[in-house]
Amino acid sequence: MKIDRANLAEVFSSIQGEGLHIGRRQVFIRFIGCNLACEYCDTHLFDRAEECRLETNPGRGDFFTLANPVPISRVTDLIAGWLSGWPGVHHSISLTGGEPLLHLEVLREWVVKLKGLLPLHLETNGLLYSALGSIVRHLDYISMDIKLPSSTGEETNWDHHREFLAVASATEMAVKVVVNSATQHWEIIRAAEMTAAISRSIPFIIQPETGQELSLKIGTGELIELQELASGTLDDVRIIPQTHRFIGLL
Q1: Which residues are CB-contacts of 246 (< 8 A; sequence separation ≥ 6)?
Q2: pTM of the model
Q3: How far apart are CA 211 and CA 224, in angstroms?
Q4: Which of 38, 56, 65, 86 is deepest in the core (most CB within 10 A)?
Q5: Which string of DSSP letters, residue by residue, matches the chain?
Q6: Nearest to 54 by CA among 35, 78, 73
Q7: How far apart are CA 180 and CA 149, in angstroms?
Q8: How distant, in Å, are the alpha carbons of 22, 156, 182 from that of 179?
Q9: What percentage of residues in the chain have a pLDDT greater than 90?
Q10: Looking at the predicted structure, is the pLDDT value of residue 179 above 80?
Q11: What is the mean pLDDT of the chain?
Q12: Cα–Cα distance between 109 and 218 in angstroms, integer?
């Protein structure tokens, strides 16, 4: 494997629509592939991309394509050009997917070079704790999911999430749970208690699943109840939908 190259879906500039950095401008580097198959996933179409699309001018939607795997020099040159031409615009680089930690050998090389450009923000399904341990010292922010069985359609590996939390807590981090009308109270309580066992102050974000017509798949009253349940053990519980979808951004 050439660690200077990675299979990417896209590189673009947009507004972060989820989590603690909602509303901030980020450079998104989307990696291909995931170790899960969540029912609500909106990125599965990128799993086997033969080409990567890259934005020419940040946030303008003027994409060009390169064959995968893409060399890191092409990505860093692109981002450096954006930082020069649009100084002060971007807050950080978001490593997203799929699941970026599946590309550990590549990431070990890339995070060092990317961090020379902007702070690094990892978006992850919160399971591959050993991989995270190899690069966590280079990361500034982590947004990790706790995958609830009611929303993913898969069994939750609570032990792996617990291990991941312990490693991720070395950074500025937040936990996210995607919920819908099938979400059970015990799921929220267990996820909140597991998070609080690391620290009560870790932000805990309840994200309602967004439907095809931009409707939420859970009622507001149910969301309020879930927030109340999590607040029994955590100090900072927030309800944040996928705002980028509502304003038509990537």
Answers
A1: 214
A2: 0.94
A3: 19
A4: 38
A5: --TTEE-EEEEEEEE--SSTTTT-EEEEEEEP--S---TT-S-GGGTT-SEEEEESSTTS--EEEEESSEEHHHHHHHHHHHHHHSTT---EEEEESS-GGGGHHHHHHHHHHHHTTS-EEEEE-S--HHHHHHHGGG-SEEEEE---HHHHSS---HHHHHHHHHHHTTSEEEEEEEE-TT--HHHHHHHHHHHHHH-TTS-EEEEEPB-TTS-BSS-HHHHHHHHHHHTTT-S-EEE---HHHHTT--
A6: 78
A7: 11
A8: 18, 14, 8
A9: 83
A10: yes
A11: 93
A12: 41
Amino acid 153: pLDDT: 86
The pLDDT tens digits for 118-134 are 999 999 999 999 999 99
Which residues, in sequence order, are CB contacts of 228 under 8 Å at separation 6+? none
Identity (one letter) of the amino acid at 190?
Answer: R
The Cα–Cα gap between 203 and 20 comes to: 8
Q: What is the pLDDT of residue 83?
A: 98
Structure tokens at 72: 């890191």
Q: Nearest 5°: phi and psi at 55?
A: -80, 135
State CA 222 to chain mean position distance.
24
- For residue 152, the cross-strand partners are none
Sign of CA dihedral 113, 116, 117, 121: positive
Quick: pLDDT tens for 52-78: 999 999 999 999 999 999 999 999 999
Query: Whole-angstrom Cα distance, residue 41 to residue 53?
Result: 20
φ/ψ region of 8 (left if φ > 0, alpha if ψ in -120 to 50, else beta) reads: beta
Contact between 107 and 115 (Cβ < 8 Å)? no
Architecture of domain 5-246: Alpha-Beta Barrel (3.20)
pLDDT at 55: 98
